[in-house]
From TrEMBL:
<feature type="domain" description="Dihydroorotase catalytic">
    <location>
        <begin position="47"/>
        <end position="235"/>
    </location>
</feature>
<feature type="binding site">
    <location>
        <position position="92"/>
    </location>
    <ligand>
        <name>substrate</name>
    </ligand>
</feature>
<dbReference type="GO" id="GO:0006145">
    <property type="term" value="P:purine nucleobase catabolic process"/>
</dbReference>
<feature type="binding site">
    <location>
        <position position="309"/>
    </location>
    <ligand>
        <name>substrate</name>
    </ligand>
</feature>
<keyword id="KW-0479">Metal-binding</keyword>
<dbReference type="InterPro" id="IPR004722">
    <property type="entry name" value="DHOase"/>
</dbReference>
<feature type="binding site">
    <location>
        <position position="152"/>
    </location>
    <ligand>
        <name>Zn(2+) 1</name>
    </ligand>
</feature>
<feature type="binding site">
    <location>
        <begin position="323"/>
        <end position="324"/>
    </location>
    <ligand>
        <name>substrate</name>
    </ligand>
</feature>
<dbReference type="GO" id="GO:0005737">
    <property type="term" value="C:cytoplasm"/>
</dbReference>
<dbReference type="InterPro" id="IPR002195">
    <property type="entry name" value="Dihydroorotase_CS"/>
</dbReference>
<dbReference type="InterPro" id="IPR011059">
    <property type="entry name" value="Metal-dep_hydrolase_composite"/>
</dbReference>
<feature type="binding site">
    <location>
        <position position="152"/>
    </location>
    <ligand>
        <name>Zn(2+) 2</name>
    </ligand>
</feature>
<feature type="binding site">
    <location>
        <position position="305"/>
    </location>
    <ligand>
        <name>Zn(2+) 1</name>
    </ligand>
</feature>
<dbReference type="InterPro" id="IPR032466">
    <property type="entry name" value="Metal_Hydrolase"/>
</dbReference>
<feature type="binding site">
    <location>
        <position position="179"/>
    </location>
    <ligand>
        <name>Zn(2+) 2</name>
    </ligand>
</feature>
<feature type="binding site">
    <location>
        <position position="58"/>
    </location>
    <ligand>
        <name>Zn(2+) 1</name>
    </ligand>
</feature>
<comment type="function">
    <text>Catalyzes the reversible cyclization of carbamoyl aspartate to dihydroorotate.</text>
</comment>
Length: 435
């Protein structure tokens, strides 16, 4: 593998520019000026920011079963272009990832393609049916080494089953990630329950459907002395409950999506199915509460909930559109817009919420590491001053359901490195040659 010299970059966007030499998969040298060794690839990064590669705890890659909308290959390309070096692929595939047959396959595909580490998420219940726990230990011991389990898309709503899942996971040292949605409160719901949904005639999803499960699971985690992770927090009330639970010493962590940090339910006016998502876009006051919570650490990290869907599943009546939006390739820019340009986070803060914290939550020892000599070269170079306009057809995903179409956003990823290999540069992904 050729050495790589990143020239004139500012680690975490702080201090004077430096040259960073990467070789043998590691950061080999950081100095004011380094002469490029023979055969080195040089990345000119004057004025740019170096961060640890991003880690996404929540993505849907649709393989196996819906390869018409995304595959591990196309999703990996979107991830590398978005600056990610590790992603967690959710279990709601077809067949469901509820056995090592599926989870080992997803891991192996990711490694073959080589653009990003694709960690499979195992289902909590067989077939996501909410009735019987899966053999988590088998999936954890498989080659895919599953370390996170979730029925995402569905809530593990039976409290006794959730309690058992937390106890079992705690013994295995793995994490349960909950899609917090009390299903009896969301029957037929397609939009946030509030004045907008009422005016538009859309069936509402109350905040309490999320908050009641977050509160319940915090208590179950306390009693089981287990850890619980809350997927895609979306309401100001959830923030209050998280704050309370953390103050009690309960092991609870939470993620927020880029879209819940930037968009609100005013967009539903258009009845455009691209804005349908679970949990739904909330009100502007929730958006502000989520931003503040991410800035002050009540919410631990950003996770994309990248959810590709076919055109015919989105370009239809709003209430028939499938919930979900693309997120991998726009995540950094949306965080820059919602958190950096508003002064809520600096680039060190972005490293914390997009890399260090998610790596720690998932227990990935070689991700989210400090930018220091001897550390694994899982890196992203960001141009903080660039702006780009989102064109769905130009995204690497097989689907085009981005809610940011035609929006101009700040910050671009200029290069991503996975264990010292360039996986994306100048807007193109670079899969392993000769696969
Ligand atoms: O909007 C969503 N889409 N939320 C989920 O929980 C699942 C996801 C999907 O799989 O499309
Ligand atoms: Zn979900």
């Amino acid at each position: 593998m050729n050495p790589i010299l990143i020239r004139g970059v500012r680690p975490y966007g702080e201090g004077e520019p430096v040259d960073v030499l990467v070789s043998d998969g590691q950061i080999a040298q950081i100095a004011a000026s380094i002469t490029a060794p023979d055969g080195a690839e040089v990345i000119e990064a004057a004025g740019q920011v170096l961060l640890p590669g991003f880690v996404d705890l929540h993505t849907h890659l649709r393989e196996p079963g819906r390869e018409d909308t995304e595959t591990v290959e196309t999703g990996s390309a979107a991830a590398a272009l978005g600056g990610f070096t590790a992603v967690f692929a959710m279990a709601n595939t077809d067949p469901v990832a509820d056995s090592p047959v599926v989870t080992d396959h997803v891991w192996a595909r990711g490694q073959q393609i080589g653009l990003v580490d694709v960690h499979p998420v195992g289902a909590v219940t067989v077939g996501l049916d909410g009735k019987q726990l899966t053999e988590m230990a088998l999936m954890a011991a498989g080659s895919g080494r599953v370390r996170m389990f979730s029925d995402d898309g569905k809530c593990v709503h039976d409290p006794l089953l959730m309690r058992r899942a937390l106890e079992y996971a705690s013994g295995l040292g793995v994490l349960i990630a909950q899609h917090a949605e009390e299903p009896r409160l969301t029957v037929g719901a397609v939009a946030h329950e509030g004045p907008n949904a009422a005016r538009l005639g859309l069936a509402g999803w109350p905040r309490a459907a999320e908050e009641s499960i977050v509160a319940r699971d915090a208590l179950l985690a306390r009693d089981a002395k287990a850890r619980v992770h809350i997927c895609h927090a979306s309401t100001a009330g959830t923030v209050e409950i998280l704050k309370w639970a953390k103050d009690q010493g309960i092991s609870i962590t939470a993620e927020v999506t880029p879209h819940h940090l930037l968009l609100d339910d005013g967009l539903l006016e258009s009845y455009d199915g691209v804005f349908r998502v679970n949990p739904p876009l909330r009100e502007a006051s929730d958006v502000l509460a989520l931003r503040a919570a991410l800035a002050d650490g009540v919410i631990d990290c950003v996770a994309t909930d990248h959810a590709p869907h076919a055109a015919q599943e989105k370009c239809c009546e709003f209430s028939h559109a499938r919930p979900g939006m693309l997120g991998l390739q726009t995540a950094l820019s949306v965080i820059a817009e919602a958190m950096v340009e508003t002064g809520l986070l600096d680039w060190r803060g972005v490293a914390r919420v997009m890399s260090e914290n998610p790596a720690a939550i998932a227990g990935l020892p070689d991700q989210g590491r400090p930018l220091e000599v001897g550390e694994p070269a899982n890196l992203v170079v960001v141009d903080p001053d660039a702006r780009w306009t989102v064109e769905p057809a130009e995204l690497a995903s097989k689907s085009a359901n981005t809610p940011y179409r035609a929006m101009t956003l700040p910050a671009t990823v200029t290069a991503t490195l996975l264990r010292g290999r360039v996986t994306a540069a100048d807007g193109a992904a670079r899969p392993v040659a000769g696969r």
